[in-house]
Amino acid sequence: RVEHFKWMREHSSKYNLSSSSMRPIPPESLRGEPVDLRMQLAEVYETGPEGVVLSHGTQEANFLAVASLRERVTRAQVILPEYEPIRLLPGLLGLKLEFIPSPWDVGSESLLVFSCPNNPLGDCIGVEGLQELSSELVRKRSYAVVDSIFADFLGVEMFPLENVIMTSSTSKFYTIKGVKVGWAVASRDLAEHMRGIGDLVSPGPFDLE
């Protein structure tokens, strides 16, 4: 059980500040020609489309990312405090879970799962810090899944890094009423593995142009 969502279902208030508080964009206000979403995201992240995985939201992208890495590591590590679904996900997939004070304490052959900017604290490692972390992960034969859904609020541009999977979606900064899509950016082999898992457990999303 995710207590975070249980609490939200059981309580109501006049103002809901639990999400981004961004006003949804009406779909009918959008203009332009249809595009291939994977190609567009590949341009944004300056990578090839084979490294982009589409999902139904960030949570599914996180699930596919952790599931694709669980056989490459001996444990998962999470920095506290952390968004509860992220904290619970590795254990749900059968990984031994450890809590660490900072990403720089990541161990060998580990999977580090965290949000950047952090939810709920808002701390952000930054681009240079993520590059340094990527080098540390490679040295320790470890990996990281970075939920970067709040990065656009800070104008942080996060590009593909070795041994790192970035996840995000339209549901915060680009919220559109009735429409949501998530994605992950990873190396070609990890992205292919993620797509295979997605095809098995949750096919799609399709025709997102």
Q: Could you please describe the fold and organization of this structure?
A:
The model has no long low-confidence stretch (mean pLDDT 91). The termini are far apart. Helix 3 runs parallel beside helix 4 (84-92) and helix 3 packs across helix 7 (188-201). It is built from seven helices and seven strands; from the N terminus they run ααβαβαββαβαββα. The protein has 209 residues and is α/β, with parallel strands linked by helices. It has a seven-stranded mixed β-sheet, with helices on both faces. Strand 4 (110-115), helix 5 and strand 5 form a beta-alpha-beta unit.
Write the layout of secondary structure elements.
Layout: H1 3-10, H2 37-44, E1 52-55, H3 58-69, E2 75-79, H4 84-92, E3 97-100, E4 110-115, H5 127-139, E5 143-147, H6 151-154, E6 164-169, E7 182-185, H7 188-201
Parallel strand pairs: 2-3, 2-4, 4-5, 5-6
Antiparallel strand pairs: 1-7, 6-7
Helix pairs in contact: 3-4, 3-7
Number of strands: 7
Order of helices and strands: HHEHEHEEHEHEEH
- Gyration radius from CA atoms, angstroms: 17 Å
Described by the principal axes of the CA atoms, the overall outline is: globular
Q: How are the strands of the biggest sheet laid out side by side?
A: 1-7-6-5-4-2-3
Give the low-confidence spans: none
What number is the mean pLDDT? 91
Distance between the termini: 35 Å
Strand content: 15-25%
Tell me about the largest β-sheet. 7 strands, mixed
Helix content: 25-40%
> What is the overall number of helices?
7
Structural class: alpha/beta
